Amino acid sequence: MRSAIIIMVKFPLPGAVKTRLQPYLTPKKCAELARCFLRDTETKVKNSDSETIIAFSPVDKKEELQEMLNHQHVFIGQMGQDLGAKMSNAFEYGFNEGFDRLVMIGTDSPTFPAPYLVEAFELLSDADTVLGETEDGGFYLIGLSKAATGILSGVDWSTEKAFEQTAGNIRAAGMSLKLLPIWYDVDNRKDFERLKQELMIAPHRATETAEWLKKI
Fold first, then answer.
1. What is the C-alpha end-to-end distance of the chain, expressed in Å?
2. Which residues of the chain are modeled with pLDDT < 50?
């Protein structure tokens, strides 16, 4: 069976990423942090046996993004009016390319354990979907073993409702759902302070971010 991991990426431009950490961090520092998150996520994914698809925006940043990353990937521009449409289109691309199982992650949970990726694919061996919930009501991972229409529609993204609405859509579509352990996103100052404490104890979970934190 062919498997791939899709990473949803927003190019780390100052003022466009991690904005909820301002003014605690400057726009430039927020962009640097987002870049570290991206590279740590890439490292985690490349240590798996799956192929990697980078679904990125803005669509004119492909060359800069390729230069920023350390490994070879398939790059596709994000297409769609909202996040749900962009995610759905990325999944559609993967299934059209002949992949049997697709796992999608973002870069806002850089320390979630790499074994969760392995577990996600294992769960997809006998389930239609898998979700990894975040503590704030979103999710850090979603996986599919078959194409699905509409499960990412009508979701209030970036709210505490996103996980439950998505899970509800999956169940309403008659699809089976398995869950991964809960983890956390790094969106605000409290999350950032938690990340700092975690990486002081376990820097191997996000090495580039850990090194960057030592310098600020």
1. 44
2. none
Residue 188: phi and psi, rounded to 5, are: -130, -175
Q: Which of 101, 135, 128 is nearest to 117 (CA)?
A: 101
CB of 211 within 8 A of CB of 197? Answer: no
pTM: 0.97
Q: Measure the CA–CA gap between 123 and 64, rounded to whole angstroms.
A: 35
45: closest CA among 23, 69, 11, 12? 69
Estimate to the nearest angstrom the gap between the alpha carbon of 159 and the chain centroid.
Answer: 16
C-alpha angle 27/33/34, rounded to 5°? 90
Rounded Cα gap, residues 196 and 216, in angstroms: 11
| pLDDT recorded at residue 1 | 84
pLDDT tens digits, 144-190: 999 999 999 999 999 999 999 999 999 999 999 999 999 999 999 99
